[in-house]
C-alpha cells in the first residue's frame, strides 16, 4: 500500500505549505522528514559507519545535506528520495546511503526579481 508520492516532494506541495518560506532543507524536514532518516539496511554488522545520504542536483553530486540550506524551497520542481539500493543502481557505490535528487525550476520561468520587493514591505 505504498504510494510513489511517499518518495517524492513536489513543487505544488511546497508552495501550498508554510515550507515555501524557507530553504529546501527546512521544507524537506517539515514535509518529508523520513527522507533524512537512515534506512535500516545501511547499518550492517560489517560497516564501521553508516553511509551518508547523497544529494544530487540533477546528476551533479553536492557536498551533503547541508547544501540544501542554500536552495530556496520555491526554486524546486521536485525532490525524489532514492533508497540505498536505487541510489547505488543510479549513482554507484558512492551513494550507498540513499540519495535525494533535486530538480530545480528553470530560471527563465521564475518571476522577475522585482516581485520579491513587494514581499519585503509595501510603501505608500
What would you say this structure looks like, in words?
This protein is of the alpha+beta class and 124 residues long. The protein has one domain. 20% of the residues lie in helices and 18% in strands. It has four helices and five strands. A five-stranded mixed β-sheet has the order 1-4-5-2-3. Strand 2 and strand 3 form a beta hairpin.
The global form is globular
User: What helical percentage do the residues reach?
Assistant: 10-25%
How far apart the termini lie comes to: 54 Å
Total discrete domains: 1
**Low-confidence spans: pLDDT under 50, at least 5 residues?**
none
Helix-strand pattern, N to C? EHHEEEHEH
Q: How is the biggest beta sheet arranged?
A: 5 strands, mixed
What's the average pLDDT?
A: 83
What count of helical segments does DSSP give?
Answer: 4
Q: What structural class do you assign from the helix and strand content?
A: alpha+beta
Number of strands: 5
How do the helices and strands line up, and which of them pair or pack?
Layout: E1 8-10, H1 11-15, H2 24-31, E2 54-57, E3 60-61, E4 76-82, H3 84-91, E5 99-104, H4 117-120
Parallel strand pairs: 2-5
Antiparallel strand pairs: 1-4, 2-3, 4-5
Characterize this entry briefly.
With 124 residues, the protein is of the alpha+beta class. Helices cover 20% and strands 18% of the residues.
Name the descriptors.
124 residues, alpha+beta, five-stranded mixed beta sheet, 18% strand
